[in-house]
Amino acid sequence: MDTRTHEKVLECLKGKSYELLEHEETPTSEDSARVRGATLESGAKAMLVDSRKGSFALFVCSASCKINFKKIKSILGKKSQFAKEESVLDVTNCASGAVPPFGRLFGIQTYCDPSLVSQPEINFNAGLRTKSVCRLRIEDYLDVEKPTIIEFVE
């Protein structure tokens, strides 16, 4: 698997305190939380959204939440859907489930839900399904990414 996105994640976190964990591939957010020894709520779930016109945005929330597409429509001003697997790979150079919560790495806007901002530390896949950034302080994530904080979960 291509490691360029993983390397970019580590580069943008230079100087920040976190743990890098190598683990088995995890198919669900619950499995990821288990191998990380973390709560589901602290997982940063990053979802690429397609506005159906080739315009993409990254929506990041707590892994314990589900996104509400009516709220996303009001944010983007148009009907949207999850990006197809092929688009996820084209835009992020990652497989679905491995996308890190950094839209800036891909030249797209990042929206972060308060469900994640309320967590003191976050955990997420770092561009690969087998490597996670763990125990990154939420303040450090917000400082690096500078996402738009807006509610979009159910």
UniProtKB/TrEMBL annotation:
Residues 23-140 form the YbaK/aminoacyl-tRNA synthetase-associated domain. InterPro entries: YbaK/aa-tRNA-synt-asso_dom_sf (IPR036754), YbaK/aa-tRNA-synth-assoc-dom (IPR007214). One of its GO terms (molecular function) is aminoacyl-tRNA deacylase activity. It holds the Pfam family tRNA_edit. This is YbaK/aminoacyl-tRNA synthetase-associated domain-containing protein. It comes from Aplanochytrium stocchinoi.
